[in-house]
Amino acid sequence: xxxxxxxxxxxxxxxVVVVEAPGAPLAEIRLVVPYALxxxxxxxxxxxxxxxxxxxxxxxxxxxxxxxxxxxxAELSTVVTVEQLLLSVSVLSEGLEGTLELxxxxxxxxxxxxxxxxxxxxxxxxxxxxxxxxxxxxxxxGPHPLAAEPxxxxxxxxxxxxxxxxxxxxxYALHRRAVVPAGSVLLVMTGAAPGHVLQLVTExxxxxAGGPSGLTLPPFRRAEPTPxxxxxxxxxxxxxxxxxxxxxxxxxxxxxxxxHLARLVLGGHSSSRLTQRLRERHAxxxxxxxxxxxxxxxxxxxxxxxxAPGTAxxxxxxxxxxxxxxxxxxxxxRETERVRRYAAGFTRFALATRAEEASALAGFVARGMDxxxxxxxxxxxxxxxxxxxxxxxxxxxxxxxxxxxTIDDDQEGTSR
Length: 416
Description:
Elements: E1 5-9, E2 15-20, E3 26-34, H1 43-52, H2 62-72, E4 74-80, E5 84-92, H3 96-108, H4 128-141, H5 168-178, E6 185-190, H6 194-205, E7 228-232, E8 240-245, H7 256-267, H8 273-281, E9 285-295, E10 298-307, H9 312-329, H10 333-350, H11 354-366, H12 373-383, H13 386-396, E11 403-407, E12 414-415
Parallel strand pairs: 2-6, 7-11
Antiparallel strand pairs: 1-2, 3-5, 3-6, 4-5, 7-12, 8-10, 8-11, 9-10
Helix pairs in contact: 1-5, 2-3, 3-6, 7-10, 7-13, 8-9, 9-13, 10-12
């Protein structure tokens, strides 16, 4: 169902979307800020800022913020993804204006008090999953921040081997550079009139200044992954891991829905071909999935499997066979109808609560999509034919276009 909504861009560059939810006892607020880790050396200060954002301002300390939040009947949380910082607030409808005032105070007059005196911890060695993912992204698309190794924190002097602590000045500097309105999105879902809400947002967040942020992911060097076979050795992995990178298109592409259904036939649910072949028939893997990955860097189709040590090569061979069979022959009519129902049901599940809906809609707007993209997507899926799914499988699932990588304790690291 299409929800009434209103859009505006404030003078400071903040994109504001107000979605009507008549009769809702709670208002949902989502602020999406570009926050990609474009420089591994900034990881400690980036993590510390995200943890402390929303805990104090120059006019309110931590206790005052907590008291005001409780008075408003609000819950505030912050989540960091590979490319964004998402600040979420659920508040009683009558507390909307007070929450916008509090949010403006935290953004415009931030205070990072009582920072931990200890030095930032040195990065821990990457585990096998992380090492495999970095290798896949680098081999498939070229060097990129998504695959970069974290840098050790700098030492205070060449004579001192201990890393220097994150300073307050560094946190404030990153806030001024990264937590900015230009390039950010604010979504408000509420029963109040959109025009009135826009006035409140303008009043309380209009003074917020800065941007655009530089913390945005650059595109991959290659739009499509370099195919091939990559075998890595990771002592102590304790299991065999497989990860692939294949071609894909973004959600806004007209061919995305057909690829989505082909992906579900491949490995998107419990009756998928990969699950039936690798787990049920051959007992090679205890975890199997296929997903479409998408962010500002690019889009790719990813298969991930985990099994017992010594099974990596066999898993790779079976995955290659499943890809080839589906690319050559396409899905059966029964498979197509099953995944169509599954996908349509999942879109409804994603909008089951207003909190989930608000987060989803904010993500769509931040990616330049229409606020009603997901509700309309179920209708798009319903119109996709089996022939179109078969065409998508033939185009995107060919093993010759896919990079297949494994980690296993029982094999030496090779690349070909």
